[in-house]
From TrEMBL:
Phylogenetic lineage: Bacteria, Pseudomonadati, Bacteroidota, Bacteroidia, Bacteroidales
GO MF annotation terms: hydrolase activity, hydrolyzing O-glycosyl compounds
Record's signal peptide: 1-24
UniProt keyword annotation of Coiled coil present: no
GO BP field: carbohydrate metabolic process
Superkingdom of the organism of origin: Bacteria
Keyword terms of this UniProt record: Glycosidase, Hydrolase, Signal
Family: Belongs to the glycosyl hydrolase 43 family.
Organism: Bacteroides oleiciplenus YIT 12058
Protein name as catalogued: Beta-glucanase
Coiled-coil region list: none
Length: 374
């Protein structure tokens, strides 16, 4: 009887060991792979809600900031969420980094629209600075403001500082003096006609918004090797991208900015730098529907930019694999990760994340292929 019990016990031990081994393999697979387009959950088992966001790497940890989106509707009811990770695969919910306000009339009153939050760290001040696209409650997409908030720690809470249009009273560095003297009445032009396109190219909307400041919608942030930071945003009724330098504490604009691709209808900019060359990926303006990505490059961030073909290749490349760019993260191994959102406007909460590696061809030009798991 004792030998029989010993055999049973031994078999039970082997079964438990086998099951544990299987569980370990399954668990490691889950931790090992980034699977785009699936429902992603945090370490507590809750669906990750951080859309249109970006990632900050600080002291060995990644911090993912994004829009908290509701199950229905389009306004912001919670604020900007934050998640942390050491491996880009297992994310811990850190809470609401920037909460909307219950104060009536506040710029970030509950029911406003907060989009595209990005956070950068200022080495000189030791502060974490968040910029985001802000629309005031009940105003639709008319205000087109940039908002800024600050914190002593990466997870927050962030203190809202102010919002407004960008660089009021200041002309772009690359807008010729003769064009600054021109005057237009935008209401007299029919959109998309050759005359309208010429007026846009020469700065019709810049001049219209000069006194109050330039419109700022979809946006990102970039810190260069010299510590200078830049705010890149869609402006001029989403027709033209602007690249604006921030002051040393990253809390406001210096007044130096350029326009790139006037009338190009670009939004959702994401930027990175490799081997002294700047690369930007953006999307067209087709609402919540995906479209073909655009690739742009320059040797100087405030210099001349040129546009190249769609960086996405392969099946569904014409719709950016169903997503829209939001951020490009430099990785510790020297690589880069393209981040995009697959929007689901019927329930923005259910929008999915697309994260893919950026590769480079023999000429050093970046391209993106769909990878099911990586």
């Amino acid at each position: 009887m004792s030998k029989y019990l010993k055999r049973i016990g031994h078999l039970l031990f082997l079964c438990i060991l086998f099951q544990t081994s299987l569980w370990g393999q399954t668990n490691s697979i889950g931790k090992k792979d980034i699977v785009s387009g699936e429902v992603w959950k945090d370490t507590d088992g809750n669906v990750i809600n951080a859309h249109g966001g970006g990632i900050l790497f600080n002291n060995g940890k990644y911090y993912w900031f994004g829009e908290h989106r509701p199950s229905s509707g389009f306004t912001t009811q919670v604020g900007v969420t934050c998640y942390s990770s050491t491996d880009l695969r297992n994310w811990t919910y850190e809470g609401v980094a920037l909460a909307v306000s219950d104060e009536v009339g506040s710029d970030i009153e509950k029911g406003c629209i907060i989009e595209r939050p990005k956070v950068i760290y200022n080495q000189k001040t030791g502060k974490f600075v968040m910029w985001f696209h802000l629309e005031l409650k009940g105003k639709g997409y008319g205000p087109s403001r940039a908002g800024v908030a600050v914190s002593d720690t990466p997870t927050g809470p962030y203190r809202f500082v102010r919002s407004g249009r960008v660089n009021p009273g200041v002309y772009p560095l690359n807008m010729p003096r003769e064009e600054r003297q021109l005057t237009w009445n935008p209401e007299t032009y029919e959109w998309w006609t050759p005359e309208w396109r010429e007026a846009v190219d020469k700065g019709m909307f810049v001049k219209r918004d000069l006194e109050g400041g330039q419109m700022s919608r979809d946006m990102t942030l970039f810190v260069d090797d010299d510590g200078k930071a830049y705010h890149i945003y869609s402006s001029e009724e989403n027709l033209t991208l602007h690249i604006a330098e921030l002051v040393d504490d990253y809390m406001s604009h210096s007044g130096k900015y350029i326009r790139i691709f006037p009338g190009g209808h670009n939004e959702a900019p994401a930027i990175f730098k490799k081997d002294r060359t700047y690369w930007m990926i953006a999307s067209g303006c087709t609402g919540w529907e995906p479209n073909k990505a655009r690739l742009m490059t320059a040797s100087s961030i405030l210099g001349e930019w040129s546009q190249l073909p769609n960086p996405c290749v392969g099946e569904d490349a014409k719709i950016t694999f169903g997503g829209q760019s939001t951020y490009i993260l430099p990785l510790e191994d020297g690589g880069y990760m393209f981040m995009a959102d697959a929007w689901r406007p019927k329930s923005l909460l259910d929008s999915r994340y697309i994260w893919l590696p950026i590769r480079f061809d023999e000429k050093g030009v970046p391209f993106i292929e769909w990878v099911s798991k990586w």
